[in-house]
Amino acid sequence: MIRLLLVEDQTLVLGALAALLNLEEDLEVCGQAANTEQALALVASEQPDVVITDIEMPGNDGLTLAARLKRDAPDIRVIVLTTFARPGYLKRAQEAGVCAYLLKDGRAEALADAVRRVCKGERIIDPALAAEAWQSRDPLSERERHCLRLAGEGHSNKEIAKRVHLSEGTVRNYLSQAMNKLDADNRIEAFNRARELGYL
C-alpha cells in the first residue's frame, strides 16, 4: 500500500482528490493539509510515501515544502499538481527534488499512475509543460532572484543588503540586471513579471 499526503488549500479540490485516489486498491490517503506547516506536521506523524502538493498556497508554497522534504525526509517522493504551466516553476521544482510535475486538468488515472511510477524511481513532467519549458529559459541568477523577491516584499536596498550580506551598490546592480533581463521599468514591475513567469 502506498501512503499519500495531499497538500491543497482549496477544500473541494482536496476532498475530491482524496476520494478519487482512495478508490485505487494500492493507494491510501493518510493525511490532508491546507498549507506547508500542516503538511510538515503530518509528514512527521503519518510518514507518507508520497506527498502530492499544489504550488501556490497561503504562507510557504509547495516548492518550499518540496525543498524542505528533500533536505529533511529525502525518501519521500514529491509530486506537484498545479494549474500553473510556468517554465520557471518547473526549474524550481527540479531544484527542489520534485519527482513529478503534473497539471490539474489531467485525468485521475494519470495521477494514480504517476504515484506508482515515482515510487519506482521515475520522474514525470506533463508533456505540455515540458515543451514550453524547453523553449523558455529562466534568465535570473540566484542572487538576482533573492534580491528581487525581497524588493517585491517592500524592502529597501539598504534592508536587502543587510539581509543578504552584500553592499547596497551590489544589491542595486543585481536589481538593475533583473529589470533589464525582464524588460521591466522598475523593481515592482520586474517582481510581478518574474512571479507571472514562475521565476520567483
Automatic annotation (TrEMBL):
Q: Residues where 4-aspartylphosphate occurs?
A: 54
Q: Does the keyword Kinase apply?
A: no
Key words, A-Z: DNA-binding, Phosphoprotein
Q: Which Pfam families match?
A: GerE, Response_reg
List membrane-spanning regions: none
Q: Which GO terms describe its biological process?
A: phosphorelay signal transduction system; regulation of DNA-templated transcription
Does Methyltransferase show up as a keyword for this record?
Answer: no
Report domain HTH luxR-type positions: 133-198
Q: Which GO terms describe its molecular function?
A: DNA binding
Indicate what this protein is called per its UniProt record: Response regulator transcription factor
Which organism is the protein's source? Natronospira elongata
Mind giving the lineage of the organism this protein is from? Bacteria, Pseudomonadati, Pseudomonadota, Gammaproteobacteria, Natronospirales
